[in-house]
Each structure stands twice: as C-alpha cells, then as structure tokens.
Amino acid sequence: MANKRITIREVAKYAGVSIGTVSRFLNNSGYVGKDAREKVEDAVKQLNYLPNSAARSMIKRKSNIVGIAVPEINNPFLADLVVKLEDRLTKNNYSMMLCNTKFSREKIANFVDDLIMRNAEGLILVSINVKEKKVIQKMGEYMRTISIGEHVAYFDCIKLTDYSAACSLTQYLIDMGHRKIAFVGFHPNSTQTMERLQGYKDTLEKNGLPLIDGYMLKTSSEYDETKKLLEEKDPPTAIININDFNALKSYDEIAKKGLTVGKEVSVVGFDDISVARFLSPALTTVACDTKKMAVDAVAMLLHNIREDSKGSGLEVELPAQMVVRDSVADLR
Questions:
Q1: Buried b (16+ CB within 10 A) or exposed e, 166-181
Q2: How many contiguous H segments (helices) and E segments (strands) does the chain have?
Q3: Which of 134, 182, 184, 247 has the most CB atoms at less than 10 Å from its CB?
Q4: 3-state DSSP: the chain helix, strand, coil percent, rounded to 5?
Q5: What is the DSSP letter of 268?
Q6: Are 153 and 142 in contact (CB under 8 A)?
C-alpha cells in the first residue's frame, strides 16, 4: 500500500502555526516571521512534505527562481561559469539559488526539496550526475531541469567535446616525445571525467603505449595525486590533470620536489581558467567558451520553462580547443 501523502494541514499542526502561514511560506506569497519560518521549514523536512502538484498548478504563481548546483564552487572554472549563468538569468528577470554540493548526494536531494518549497521554476546542474530515481522524479515533476557537462536522465544537456579533447591532449604529449603519461583527478561517478579518462586510454592504445594502473589516479582526499606519482620508482614525464584547478596542485607539488614544470615534468589540464596563462610556465590546456555555454544553457532552460517541457534528452555539444603554451617539455 502506498504511503499516505502528508497534507498542509498536518504540516501546520506539526509546526504549531496556521495553515495560512504554511501556505504563505510555501508559495512565497506574503510575510512569514523568522520564528514561524523556522518552524515550518523544520516541519516540512521532518514530515518529508512536498506540495501537491495539482494545487501548485492552480496557483499559477511564477517565482522567477532558478537553482544552480555545482560540486565545488572554489573551482575557478565553475565559479566563473556560475557568474555568467547568473548574469544571463538576471537579464531575463530570474534570480538564482546556489548549492555547493561537495559531491554529496544528500546535499543535492535537500537542495531539490528547498527549491520545491520555494516554487522554483528551474534547475541547472553543473558537472553533477544524479542517479537517484526519487530525486530525478522531483526534478522532472516540480521544475524544469537541464544539465551542463553531465547527461542526467532524460533532461536536456549542454556538453563539451570531452572525449576528443582528451584524445588531442594525449596525442600532443605523445607527439612531443612523451611515453610515460599519467592521468589524475577523475571521479568514477562523473561521466564527464570518465569520458576524458577514456580519451586518454584510447589514445595510448592507438599509439601502442601500455596502460599503467599506477599512472591513473582518481581524485582523493587521502593523498595528493601528483605527490604520489612523483614518489613512484619510475615517475611519469607528463601529467594530464582532470582540470586546471587540479593542475595548480601539480605545479605546487612539483616545485616542492625541487623540479620544474615544463622541464623535468610536463603538466596539462582542462578548462583554461583565467590564471592558466599567468602561471610560470603558462599552462597548456583545453579552452571552452563559458559565455556561450551560459547563454545556451539559460536559453535552453527558459525555453523548457515557457513550453512546460521536461526535456527529451536533447544534447548540444560545444567545441573545446587545445591552447598550447609552455608547460610541456619537448622530448623528441
């Protein structure tokens, strides 16, 4: 037998407030005092209450709120993209709610519930892969959702040419005479990073080079990937980082070892963050047009909001281009 759906009356009783107070809070339609708001928020979470979609549609109230979820806001690439997304939303009279998920599934689920309570109209997932069926169902039923970087369920998506970009980076290193090439920072639950890893692996195999397990390190909170590589008996001559943010850590660890980037150890990354060109030596990386990404993503989301479309799995792929600088030694 299906679980009984919690009603607004039960939420009001649990919180010790009136039904009108709960309604104003859920629909953002009037003043609710701080104490009452906290009581209602607690009741909603404790009872796992979700507003009835039929009642919600009858209200026909637009919140002009869009949620944006990112895995790590301290990543310069993601921070820059969020700024550009907010700019586009603002120009279309939408405000933003941000969630720094820190790769936590629980934080994503709670964020979706918060968006529902505030009657948010849309959600943009940036480099986040959601697999939980209940969360996906909520994202599809209560708001319009799109993703950037990761293809999530049936939602429309903006993607980069991650696989081919990784192939190009790896081939460039091989063409420069490198044979001991490492790949670090990927996340097994991230389709985007696994596509980059696959491009690296396929390119090595295409060139007849062996895949060495010790040269492929996923992101870890227990150790620094570059430090671990440099402590190997036969360390790599080149390191492909999953992104430029990770490459900054490689620069630091290489310097701590008394080595020089671009000479003893070559380093490349993805994203072309603003500081990449100012590093010494300047970082060879893969660039993408974050402004176009933001413009296309917001246009896609607003179209789905206007048409009340849940999406059909549309995938728009934006090209990425390798930017050659000075962080790779020529071993030919």
A1: bbbbbbbbbebebebb
A2: 12, 12
A3: 247
A4: 45, 15, 40
A5: E
A6: no
- Residue 261: name the closest of 180, 207, 325, 322 by CA: 325
Parallel, antiparallel, or unpaired: how do β-strands 95-100 and 65-70 relate? parallel
Chain segment 283-317, per-residue pLDDT in tens: 999 999 999 999 999 999 999 999 999 999 999 99
For residue 123, what are its two tokens? 């959600």
Quick: pLDDT tens for 65-88: 999 999 999 999 999 999 999 999
Are 229 and 182 within 8 A, CB to CB?
yes
277 vs 311: CA distance, rounded Å: 38
Segment 210-249, tens digit of pLDDT: 999 999 999 987 779 999 999 999 999 999 999 999 999 9
pLDDT digits (tens, 9 = 90+) for 146-195: 999 999 999 999 999 999 999 999 999 999 999 999 999 998 888 899 99
Contact (CB, 8 A) for 180 and 234: yes
Cα atoms in the 13 Å half-sphere on the side-chain side of 156: 20
Residue type at 128 in one-letter notation: I
Return the bridge partners of 261, or none. Answer: 265
Amino acid (1-letter code) at residue 7: T
